[in-house]
Design a protein that fits this description.
mainly alpha; 3 helices
Length: 99
């Protein structure tokens, strides 16, 4: 079997960049789904733009060190019964209230 002479093996940096880009794209999709559902199901009750502003504010507070992602996951579980499972490539939500 012939190999392409111009083929360059992927470096660890290439792999990490691809992983980051995939994770960012996944987050964009999740954000779009979240805001679309919010708008479609709760139109008139909740303005998605206000929710987005709150998401940005919460992200900045987390970046400033006021709380961690683990704190948010624990709050979702303890107060709402929602457990986020998996890592960036397999994140799913499990609603403990249905058990």
């Amino acid at each position: 079997m012939k190999t392409n002479p111009r083929r360059r093996p992927a470096t660890q940096a290439d792999v990490e960049r691809a992983r980051r880009e995939g994770w960012v794209e996944g987050m964009r999709i999740a954000e779009a789904i979240f805001l679309t559902v919010l708008h479609d199901r709760h139109a008139g009750e909740i303005d998605p733009r206000l929710v987005w502003d709150e998401i940005v504010e919460k992200t900045r507070a987390m970046d400033a060190g006021y709380f961690t992602a683990a704190d948010l996951r624990r709050t979702l579980l303890e107060e709402y019964g929602i457990e986020l499972l998996g890592g960036p490539s397999k994140a799913i939500a499990h609603d403990r209230r249905t058990e």
